[in-house]
């Protein structure tokens, strides 16, 4: 087997601050050259985990390995790791060139090596024209690029990025996403990127760890965590979804985790169980159905899932419909606008609702 080496191995790591549990025991590996994202709401432990990897914080239990080496007693400045902070932390009185070269100077690099590396880095982040400026004379996006260049200058094997785009306005943030992704592929440095912004995570990452309250809820590719959420938290945190209270009524056919579930409102629906332990008859949980996975048709024959359009919202690329099923359940759907009007519905229209069994995910927690 020629497998990709592991860059960072989180082994049974937990972190308590007094009584407070910031990180519950978690274990996972991050591959060399991966763009790996920690995604979760504020306070879920993302920064704490980065600080542990960087060496600014000890674990309460468990260990972190970097390229299979135990890090416990290695101080931060001797780890092959560097950090880009949210506020950039640039030195205000130093030029761009000196900001980028400062860390190399501290590491004892020669003047010539520092100059060469700074040259290389300003080219990488396209700041050649700005090398003599001070941070205050740069735009937010340019300051961000200085911070990136400075962090990458000592050739770390792993770069930790703690919400590095949050200070930028939306347009610039979107542009920087593409730049960061390209930079990661170009340099081959393993990126561990922290964000609470699901769109950022989905657009840049090879894999995402979705975190909540000190726990990892799911690790997967962007499409896996979006299309196959493992829990209610993941389904709700990433994208929009319909969540309907339901229980399993028939779990006899275990192939592909297919189950029949009954909504509390009475409808029976073929669905896909997110985890095998949801396959017991009577198991309670939620059915998650993404709005764009629902198809609407003008009401023809009798159907379990008939309803009435209660509201429509034009969103440019899509139209959102709010529907009340005859049983009383509320759903919302999104239909892409094709430019011709033939599929449009209006308030009061009767419709049939349909979706594929693998678009209806039964989540037991
Ligand atoms: N040094 C500390 N002492 C006490 N509590 C802390 C400390 N650092 C972080 N915490 C707490 O741990 C939790 C996780 O914090 P943090 O890792 O910064 O979250 P995130 O980066 O996901 O927003 C928060 O509730 C925070 O208040
Ligand atoms: Mg944080």
Characterization of this structure:
The protein folds into 2 domains: 6-232, Rossmann fold (3-Layer(aba) Sandwich), CATH 3.40.50; 258-338 and 345-363, Nucleic acid-binding proteins (OB fold (Dihydrolipoamide Acetyltransferase, E2P), Beta Barrel). The protein is globular. The strands form 4 sheets. A 6-stranded mixed β-sheet has the order 6-7-8-3-9-10, sandwiched between helices. Strands 11-12-13-20-14 form a 5-stranded mixed barrel. It has a 5-stranded antiparallel β-sheet with strand order 15-19-16-17-18, with no helix packed on it. Helix content is 23%, strand content 35%. The chain has 365 residues and is an alpha+beta fold. Helix 2 crosses helix 3 (111-124). Adenosine-5'-diphosphate (ADP) is lined by residues 17, 20, 22, 40, 42-48.
Name given to the CATH homologous superfamily of the largest domain: P-loop containing nucleotide triphosphate hydrolases
The second-level CATH architecture of the largest domain is: 3-Layer(aba) Sandwich
CATH class of the largest domain: Alpha Beta
The rounded distance between the terminal residues' Cα atoms is 36 Å
Q: Tally of extended strands? A: 20
CATH topology of the largest domain, by name, is Rossmann fold
Q: What is the arithmetic mean of pLDDT?
A: 91
Strand order of the largest sheet: 6-7-8-3-9-10
- Residue share in β-strands: 35-45%
Helix content: 10-25%
Shape, principal axes of CA atoms: globular
Largest β-sheet summary = 6 strands, mixed
Ligand inventory: adenosine-5'-diphosphate, magnesium ion
- Give the helix tally: 8
């Amino acid at each position: 087997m020629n497998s990709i080496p592991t860059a960072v191995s989180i082994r049974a790591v937990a972190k308590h601050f007094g009584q407070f549990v910031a990180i519950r025991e978690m274990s996972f590996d991050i591959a060399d050259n991966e763009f790996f994202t920690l995604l979760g709401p504020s306070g879920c432990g993302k920064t704490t985990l980065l600080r542990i990897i960087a060496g600014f914080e000890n674990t309460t239990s468990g260990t972190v390995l970097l390229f299979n080496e135990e890090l416990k007693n290695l101080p931060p400045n001797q780890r092959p790791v560097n950090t880009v902070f949210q506020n950039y932390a640039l030195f205000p009185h130093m030029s761009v060139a000196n900001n980028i070269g400062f860390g190399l100077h501290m590491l004892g690099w020669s003047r010539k090596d520092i100059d060469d590396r700074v040259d290389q880095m300003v080219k990488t982040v396209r700041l050649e024209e700005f090398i003599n400026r001070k941070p205050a004379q740069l735009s937010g996006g340019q300051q961000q690029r200085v911070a990136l260049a400075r962090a990458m200058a000592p050739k770390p094997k792993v770069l930790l990025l703690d919400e590095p785009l949050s200070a930028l306005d939306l347009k610039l943030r979107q542009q920087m996403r593409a730049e960061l992704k390209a930079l990661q592929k170009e340099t081959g440095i393993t990126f561990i990127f922290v964000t609470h912004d699901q769109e950022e995570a989905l657009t840049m990452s090879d894999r995402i760890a979705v975190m909540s309250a000190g726990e990892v809820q799911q690790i997967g590719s962007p499409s896996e965590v979006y299309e196959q959420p493992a829990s209610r938290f993941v389904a709700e945190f990433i994208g929009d979804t319909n969540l309907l209270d339901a229980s399993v009524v028939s779990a006899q056919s275990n192939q592909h985790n297919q189950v029949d579930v009954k909504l509390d409102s009475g409808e029976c629906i073929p669905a896909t169980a997110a985890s095998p332990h949801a396959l017991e008859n009577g198991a309670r949980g939620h059915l998650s159905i993404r709005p764009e996975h629902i198809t609407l048709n003008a009401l023809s024959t009798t159907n379990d899932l008939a309803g009435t359009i209660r509201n429509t919202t034009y969103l440019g690329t899509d139209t959102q419909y709010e529907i009340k099923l005859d049983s009383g359940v509320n759903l919302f759907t999104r239909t892409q606008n094709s430019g011709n009007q033939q599929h449009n519905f209006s308030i009061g229209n009767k419709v049939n609702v349909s979706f594929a069994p693998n678009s209806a995910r039964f989540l037991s927690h």
